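Z., the sequence and structure:
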Amino acid sequence: MVNHVCMSVCLCACARALRLPSRTEFSCSITAHRRCGGLLSQPLRSFLPPSSPARATCPLFSASRHVRAAFIRTTARLLHEKTVLFSSFSQRSFVKSGFSEIPEGSFVHTPALQLLLFTANSFDSINEDAFLGLPHLEYLFIENNKIKSISPYAFRGLKSLIHLSLAYNNLQTLPRDVFKGMEALTKVDLRGNIFSCDCKLKWLVEWIYHTNATVDQIYCSSPPLYQGKKINDLLPQSFDCITAEFAAYQSLKFESISVESFTFGNDQYVVFAQPFTGTCSFLEWDHVEMVFRNYDNIESTSTIVCKPLVINNQLFIIVAQLFGGSHIYKRDMSANKFIKIQDIDILKIRKPNDVETFRIDGESFFVIADSSKAGTTTVYKWNGNGFYSHQSLHPWYRDTDVEYLEIAGKPHLILSSSSQRPVIYQWSKSQKLFDRRTDIPEMEDVYAVKHFKVKAELFICLTRFIGDSKVMKWDGAMFTEVQTMPSRGSMVFQPFSVDNWHYAILGSDYSLTQVYRYDPKKGQFIHVQELNIQAPRAFSLVSIDNREFLLASSFKGKTQIYEHLMIDLSN
């Protein structure tokens, strides 16, 4: 007949000294260990004495036969108390034990176990491979404990388990694939936990939907959107777990004040204006090294804008300079270089600050915003041989930015300046000129205006160096305020789109650059990220090889390139 003895850890450690029968199975509890006066500090383990007894270092080893007999009688009496561990060859129970975790390999010496029960214990975690070596375990009850975390591989090796209960613990989530390899499961009990129904728990919703095991009804404790709802009734598509971020990808060793991306001859290029070296730097994508590399340069003086314009498979570059006049270059394909073909009237364009290109009724135009008192913002038109002045807009206003956009299907220009509110010009189809229409009220000191669309709705981002930058929406008659963005030292508030994601980046000379993403449900931008860019001046998005890159010009530091990465928060 097999002896079943419940012993404290201190007695287990002295098994050899007490010369107990070799068929005796020992189970140790930390609670009982504490009753021994803390003679031994050791995690929960099961010990089987060797076939031939050997002496061990133990306070009881040197005790008399009567003392050892008294100790065994005391242990037997503890069998009737709740704080004691009961065990057999096929099942084992831990009730109100004092240990704080189930460590790795706790049951490697009891492979015959078929049922294991933990209840009313104080441990809060289950470690990796805690139940390793239990190929025959069929029932595992870990109920009414204080478990907060479970290792993803805590149940590894339990291929025969058919019933698992983790009921009435403090679990807010479960690691993905924690039930992987447990093909025999027929019942899972997760009741009484405080599950947070977020993306980390999406996998459980999918698992419940596909598993053959019966899962008792469980409920969400948070977030407020799902509080009180049955997890069993949720669908995987209930969770919006796809997000994105801009990750640093490449750093370029030069300062720049503007950046443009363009397509020419089925290839993608980017061009940076470097004011201190007076260079237009063209980069192309290296499909082997997966980086942007130098393609060509245009040498000039105090360059602030290098604007590409493709007309009838010809590439033109409008090079705006602070000194020495502005020029137009053309790409000579036979010579494989840029050649200057035209100077821009220095009497009209004295201090250019921005260049925009556009097409109206099949004809190509560009407009230069001039920021000097003596200069004039001017529209130029391509006549088949060159670009010639088409229209001079208002003089003397020190324009800092010009934006081309369509409002209600009609071409418009918005001019920003330091001396008046942004002015809106509308294209007259009969006169083929821009007519002043109105201004944007209560928006003084706007440095630049950029537009974007969300479906059919038109928005503009207005940049202020001092004061709050704003997002406004066209309501059919005028632009109305939608959102205010705190900004100090901002010279760029750039909207752009990546697939169905709409972003706006607010740069700053005094703090980190703020990235916002448009939330169509709220009808506003939400803050999603910060980027460390020194004195940003312009941003441009380029798509290459099914990847999206954000290029950021820096006036006082290295020009930066970021990659737009999609992230699944449920993984």
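The mean pLDDT is 86. Residues 65-77 form the longest helix (13 residues).

Let me know what you think.
H.
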